[in-house]
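Narrative summary of target 7.
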Amino acid sequence: MGYPVGQVSAFAGVTVRTLHHYDRTGLLRPSDRSPAGYRLYSDADLARLQQILFYRELGFPLDEIATILADPQANALDQLRARHRRLTEEINRLRRLVEVAEQAMEVQQTGVRLTPQERFEVFGEIAFDLTYATDAERRWRNSDGYRRSMARAATHSKDDWAQIMAEAADWRARLTAAFDAGEPADGERAMDLAEEHRRHLTRWFTPCPTDMHGRIADDFAADPRAFALLVPPTEQRPGLAPYLRTAVHANAVRQSPPAPATEPDDRHHRP
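Modeled conformation, tokenized:
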């Protein structure tokens, strides 16, 4: 009993047209025919088809597959070694292209125009997550603040970034010290640190009013990728991101101008 071409096509995942082509070229000729002349494939034919599909998956052209199958003991190992070498070279080439593409994406999505070596020297553990950069660009690309921040970041030199990161490291140390000491998130020390961060953003990137700063802090608390840009994972503590968010919002309230006092309505008391 043999398997008809349609059934072989279905469970092998190849088209009937492909099987017909293999038959015409002699690569895989079915062992039998039905009384009506239809192709019928035996178990041995299916085993050969499996070999063909294996070599095709590795990228071998059909003529090389035919050569291997004609004398597998003499040719298969050498052919596989050669294919392995070519695939390894192609993988390395593609990896280099991926690195170049990621660097280009990072420049476009973060505004950091430094070489990979300079980025390593300046940022250390702080790593840009391109998935977050892509999400941020999608969410805020129509925001004037986001556009100004990206444009300003693109103008910073290596020395600028070194100073930015030094200021950020000093600020992080004082933030974590306040957190570890149990300072309240809405206390003066935490609010002062929040205000210092807001002014840091204004000085180096874009004017950052308190409402914008609140949205940034909300993002820090909601998305670990965002908070990792501010505090590397090795320096984080559980609850630190929500602590900063509370401090930022408390500082926003502190920075709000007091409501104007209303004069008492004394119309009913006039003589």
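The beta strands are 3-4, 32-33, 39-41.
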